Amino acid sequence: MKKIYPFTLCLFSAFSFAQQMVSFEYLDGFHTGDIHGQGTWISTPTGDVPPNVLNQTVCTDTATDGANSLKIVKENTYGTQSIPIIGAFDNLPVLLPHHGFTVSFDMNMSQLNGSIFSFQGVSSAEEKYIVRLDFDNTGNIKILKTISGMPVMEPALGTWLPNVWYQIKVVGTPADIKYYLNGVLIYSGTAAESMDINQLRFVHDNADGSAYIDNIKVYNQALLSAADGDVNRKTVEVYPNPASDFIKISSSGKIKSIQIYDTAGKRIQAELENNKIDIRNLPPGTYLINVKAEKGNFSGKFIKK
Question: Rounded to whole angstroms, how far apart are CA atoms 170 and 188?
Fold first, then answer.
C-alpha cells in the first residue's frame, strides 16, 4: 500500500429526524469478522490492493451492550500513520447538522504509549473534520478546534486508563459542541467546520494496541429536550443521596443494567440486588451512575458519605 486514502462517498436521505443504534449484534445483522461491508460500515480505503484494510472486526472479546463489539487494531502490513485514519467508518444514512446532533458510544483501549485512538465526525466528500476527539497515547484527551483557520488539538479535562470502558457523548447545539466523558462535561467549543456530518470514524494511527467500541447511538437533533429529560427523571430515581450504606433504584420499568464510575472515569464493580446497591466499600466521594431501564435511561451522580 502506497498511501492510506481517507475518502469515501455514499448517498443520504433527507429525513428531518433519525435515530441509529449500533451494538454489532447478530440480531441487528452483524456477524463476527471483517467490519467492511456490514450494514453501512466500511474499513479504511487503501487506494491499493486490497481496496480496504482487512483486520478491523466485529468480535466477541468484550462488550457493554450484548455480546459483540467493534475491534479496531493495528494493521501489520502498514506503518504508523501521520494521523488517526485506520479503522472503521460508518456511512450515516441521515446527515447530522453540526448545530443539532448527538452521538454517544462506549470505548475501551488496550494500552498507553501506543496508538492514538480517535472519534471523528467528518464531511467525507470535502475530507473535513466537524468534530474530533483523540485519546492520546499519553493518557490525555484532546479535542480539535480551529484557531485563525488552523487546526489545533487542544487538551480537554479528564484522562483515560487502559482496559477501562468509557462512555463518550458529543452534542452539537446552535451555541457550541459539548464533549462528555462518563456524563461529565470535559470540553465545550465550536465545531471545527460548520458543515453537516455524513460519516463517523473510529480510528487509530496504526501504532501499537487495539480498542473496542460498542453501544453507539446517533441522533440528528440536539440531545434530549427538557421534556424528554423530565420523562427519564420520572421513570428512574436513585435515592438516598447522599448515602453511606446502600442506594436504591426506583423504576417504572424493568432495570436492564447499572454502571458506576468514579470521577477519574474508572468503572466500579457493583451489583444490583432487589433494586439496591451496596456502596459500603466505596471510598467517600462523588460517583456517576448510569441506569438502563425498559422505559428510559438515567445518568446522574450520587455522593458516598
Answer: 10
Residue 230, phi then psi, degrees to nearest 5: -65, -40
Backbone angles phi, psi at 284, to 5 degrees: -55, 140
Residue 25 grid cell: 449484534
What letter does residue 98 receive in the DSSP assignment? T
Residues 86 and 72: beta-carbon distance below 8 Å: yes
Q: Are 87 and 44 in contact (CB under 8 A)?
A: yes
- Cα 229 from Cα 241, distance rounded (Å): 19
Distant-in-sequence, close-in-space partners of 23: CB < 8 Å, separation ≥ 6? 63, 65, 66, 68, 69, 214, 215, 216
Q: Which residue has the cell 463518550?
A: 168
Which residue type is seen at 156? A
Instruction: Give pLDDT tens digits for 71-97.
Output: 999 999 999 999 999 999 999 888 899
- In angstroms, how far is CA 32 from the centroid of its own chain? 20
Cα 64 to chain centroid, rounded: 12
Q: Is the dihedral of CA 189, 190, 192, 196 positive or negative?
A: positive
Q: Which of 38-52, 214-228, 288-302 has the lowest mean pLDDT?
A: 214-228
Pairing of strands 210-219, 117-123: unpaired
Rounded-to-integer distance, Cα 49 and Cα 53, Å: 9
Please write the tens of the pLDDT for every residue from 242-259. Answer: 899 999 988 777 888 888
Phi, psi of 96 (to 5 degrees): -105, 110
* The residue count for the chain: 305
* End-to-end C-alpha distance for the chain, whole angstroms: 57
Hey, which residues does 272 pair with through a beta bridge?
Answer: 277
3 state SS of 263: coil
Q: Is 252 helix (H, G, I), strand (E, B) or coil?
A: coil
